[in-house]
Design a protein that fits this description.
The chain is an alpha+beta fold and 467 residues long. It has two domains: 332 residues, Immunoglobulin-like (Sandwich), CATH 2.60.40.1730; 127 residues, Neutral Protease, domain 2. Helices cover 29% and strands 28% of the residues. An eight-stranded mixed sheet has the order 5-4-8-2-1-12-15-14, with no helix packed on it. A four-stranded mixed sheet has the order 17-18-19-20, covered by helices on one side. Strands 3-7-6 form a three-stranded antiparallel sheet, with no helix packed on it. Strand 6 and strand 7 form a beta hairpin. Helix 5 crosses helix 6. Bound molecules: tryptophan (TRP) and zinc ion. The site of tryptophan has 13 residues, from helix 5.
Length: 467
């Protein structure tokens, strides 16, 4: 369903472009191939999610002002994006699904806009030159809800009985703010979120202000380090809050649904020691803020590594806390450039769980590997290779998590512990706040070890069936 309707809108878009008047087409052609179009692309070029993200500009900062009524479930929003044109733009897209847009301005001037599926198409009153910095302000409102992912799970703004569980991987950011919603584009964020008094709104980064008046409380959050849109949250609920600063100076903010307090207290107590242990393994924790959002959202069925402050749909166990914490290095600080490379997130976070167990009196990574390797050739674990899941439907499947971790264990066996842990630290360090591809990881591992690892990765990441 989802994929079919996307395909339809892509085709419709091409049909529109095909009717560009001949004179304009000639002008565009005369401008040369590099600047053939002044229309920003409707996607970031990711085959798994063709309409996620957009072409033609980079967003440096999002300033989101939201007001959520937990009774009517109505959201009022203003998003101000500070962006830079990477090409001349007469028109560009933002991703926004559902919701009603009431006004768009570009640099303070009213801009024309239209909607086409998940694309909000903006035509500024004056063309934007390549390299130009500009501000887009979008006013919008409505009753947000989740998107259904190709694998059937819900992602985005997910209403709960006391607010909303907000988690946007891989494509849900567009359900609650207009975005350049692909991990290729990373930005800093300011959030100003107003909710009924008694509810708490938790976003990413550091809490920089909170005040209550006329029955409403406004929370101001600031995420200074670059963040992919899917890692943003603005979760609302009745939460018990705990705040402290770690010995390393990291500001911790935990928000726990009272119904999950008993189940999560002992695990949350471990957060500083888990971050400390991971910092020793992977290098310095990348962010100035940390914490957890432990919601009571039984329908969700997963946790997400929302930047700096992972979100859990119920009280997490310790290995889930270790997993989401490891994502802060692998996935959040070092981001994907394509969803196909998802094993760089999930394989690494899963391997962190194995390492944690090994170093804390549990099963060794070898034992975990062996138990998985014993699974017969027909098992779901071997259904597709982790380095090439084939479609967005498979990105959160067992081969990505478990066989992705097995690939790292094989690497460790091939290069030895000292070099292996040096590789992990170099990966997190060299790509900190940026991006990394599988090809870059293989190259780095070969550079650090001096070993030709081509066939190891070929076998474990790309070979069909049980290696
Ligand atoms: N990335 C999450 C994790 O492994 C899992 C996740 C996020 C997920 N969104 C999802 C799983 C959607 C299934 C469907 O921590
Ligand atoms: Zn994960």
């Amino acid at each position: 369903m989802q994929a079919a309707s996307r395909r339809t809108s892509v085709l419709r878009r091409e049909a529109v472009l095909a009717t560009v008047p001949v004179a304009v087409a000639a002008l565009l052609a005369a401008a040369g191939p590099a600047s053939a179009s002044t229309v920003g692309g409707s996607g970031a070029g990711d085959p798994y999610f063709p309409l996620s993200g957009n072409g033609g500009y980079h967003v440096g900062h999002y300033d989101l002002t939201l007001r959520y009524d937990t009774t009517s479930r109505h959201l009022d929003g203003t998003a101000v994006l500070s962006a830079r044109a990477t090409q001349r733009l007469t028109r560009f897209d933002l991703d926004l699904k559902g919701l009603k847009v009431t006004r768009v301005t570009v640099d303070g001037r009213t801009a024309r806009f239209s909607r086409n599926g998940q694309e909000l198409v903006v035509t500024p009153s004056r063309a934007l030159a390549k390299g130009r910095e500009f501000h887009v302000a979008v006013s919008y409102n409505g009753t947000p809800g989740p998107v259904t992912d190709p694998d059937g799970s819900a992602d985005g703004w997910i209403p709960t009985d006391d607010g909303a569980f907000v988690a946007g991987e891989p494509q849900g950011a567009m359900t609650w703010f207009p975005a350049n919603s692909h991990p290729k584009d990373k930005s800093s964020y300011d959030f100003t979120i107003t909710v009924p008094k008694g509810r708490t709104a938790v976003a990413n980064g550091v809490l920089v202000g909170q005040h209550t008046s006329a029955g409403r409380t406004t929370f101001r959050w600031r995420q200074s380090e670059p963040m992919a849109a899917y890692l943003a949250t603005a979760t609302v609920g009745k939460f018990t809050v705990q705040q402290y600063t770690t010995r390393d100076g990291i500001k911790v903010y935990n928000a726990v649904d009272p119904r999950e307090a008993n189940g999560s207290a002992s695990v949350l107590k471990e957060l500083p020691s888990v971050l400390d242990w991971e910092s020793r393994l992977f290098g310095p924790y990348p962010f100035r803020s940390a914490g957890a959002i432990v919601d009571h959202a039984p329908s969700v069925g997963y946790a997400l590594e929302t930047q700096g402050r992972p979100i859990y749909d119920s009280a997490p166990d310790l290995s889930t806390l270790v997993h989401e914490s490891a994502h802060q290095w692998f996935g959040d600080s070092v981001s994907l450039t394509a969803w196909k490379d998802i094993w760089l997130n999930e394989g690494f976070a899963t391997y962190a769980e194995w390492l944690y167990s090994e170093q804390h009196g549990g099963d060794s990574a070898q034992k975990t590997f062996d138990a998985l390797y014993a699974k017969p050739a027909g098992d779901a674990l071997w259904a597709y290779p982790p380095g090439d899941p084939g479609s967005g439907k498979n990105i959160f499947g067992e081969p990505v998590y478990a066989r992705g971790a097995m690939a790292l264990h094989e690497l460790r066996g091939a290069v030895g512990d000292t070099v292996f842990f040096r590789i992990l630290r170099a990966w997190a360090g060299e790509h900190r706040y940026g991006h990394g591809t599988t090809a870059q990881f293989v190259k780095l591992a070969e550079g650090q070890s001096g070993v030709d690892l081509g066939s190891l990765f070929q076998t474990w990441l790309y070979k069909k069936g049980k290696p």
